[in-house]
Amino acid sequence: MPPPIIPTFRYAIVDDEVYRGAYPKNRNYRFLKRLELKTMLSLIPDPPIPELIEFCQNENIRNIHLQVAKFKDNVPLSYSKAIQAVQILIDPTNHPIFIHCLDGADVTGLVVACLRKLQMWSIPSVMGEFLRYLRGGVISFEESEFIEKFSAEIEIPYTIPSWLWEGKVTFEKHPTLKLKFKDPGMIEQFEQKKQKKKSIEEDVNRKRVGGDLLESFTKVQTKYGESVIEDEETEVSMTLQALALEVFYSILSGILLLHTR
Fold first, then answer.
1. Buried b / exposed e along 244-255 (16+ C-beta atoms within 10 A)
2. Gene3D superfamilies, alphabetically (predicted)?
3. Which residue, 170, 176, 169, 172, is CA-closest to 153?
4. Averaging pLDDT over each range in 62-71, 182-191, 236-245, which range is the top one?
């Protein structure tokens, strides 16, 4: 009988191909193997134990160790380490990825909270998720302050995962963080789309002033009295033509009157 498949303590899915949990033990290896990981991010005081290193090597998993002290009373995670971790998490070349600390709660939770800020989650939503993984269910003042004051510069890779801003830049400025794009084209594409949208809106407004009402009437499918317009190839009734001309000339007269004043 094969051994049971046991997830790591506090295991959870952060987003597509991004997983979190506590320090993996031997009994968790079969479960981790099923995730087909490419990267394991270890936020722990000392290098991973030999057994975990061997597991990663056997499964072709790249292990990245960011040294973070054991959580006691103060927050052991620095903003620079949080930035490093977030940048690793948002790089699709590292996916699927498993991030862990010693217990899968505080340090891992703080990194995920910083990631959520990058995703533009509201602070109440970020705090709510963070609290779900804490032992006592109570966030300390230091942890709350760490999350709220996280406002660093994040380097955005050439490609981003679909769960980050739906895979594309749709904003001019991030509300809380500074962003540095490896590919300036991401911003340029957004600006081009913005200018194109503005040009279309201006063109529509111009057409509304001078509008070609006759063209719109030929495309309408409706009833007027006993006349029915089935499609664009159907001849428009004399009644509708007369009405269209009357409305058109009425608006045109109004426009000319405004220009002569």
1. beeeeeeeeeee
2. Protein tyrosine phosphatase superfamily
3. 176
4. 62-71
Greater pLDDT, 202 or 123:
123
Q: Which of 107, 94, 90 is nearest to 15 (CA)?
A: 90
Same-domain pairing of 163 and 210: no
Nearest Cα to Cα of residue 55 among 77, 35, 75? 35
Gyration radius of the chain over CA positions: 30
Q: Does residue 152 share a domain with residue 214?
A: no
Domain housing 222 = 189-260
Assigned token pair, 244: 């269209």
Instruction: Report how many domains make up the chain.
Output: 2
Residue 6 lies in a domain: no
Token representation of residue 194: 């913005």
Cα dist from 176 to 4, 152, 173, whole Å: 44, 9, 9
pTM of the model: 0.72
Pair 21, 9: CB distance under 8 Å: yes
Q: Catalytic positions, please?
A: 101
